[in-house]
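Troubleshooting: if your tokenizer reports a length mismatch, compare your output against this known-good record of 140 residues.
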Amino acid sequence: MEFEKLKILSGHYWDVFLHQDQTALGRLYFWYKEEASDLLDIPHEALIEFYEMGNRVKSALTKTFNPDLYNYLSLNNVTKHLHIHLIPRYSRKIRLFGFVFDDFSFGRAYECATNFHVNEETLVKIKEKIKEALKGTVQE
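Known-good structure output:
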């Protein structure tokens, strides 16, 4: 899949994309646009932008899907480039677009469901719902 199809938001330092793993509905990630692998190596302005974009996206996710809480991960185990996952967590199943989204590991460390996949059309629909909710959030 072409990643640009899943872009939700773009800033000076960061792009935000919907993640293809939607075990936890609305899972997304922030991709740092410059070369870096460690969050503490980036300029202060990039941290501020992450904070501001993060608050906007979190507000949109809360408005759209009402998760119980959020997890943030920056592991760099597979991709050696700075990116930060924002994973909404749910104590309940959510039915949307003909799928049942089940955060089966709620209350524990996040695990993706290896047997659960949504198609590209559904990923784009989820992205559009988040983008629509972003219209009501404060911009810089």
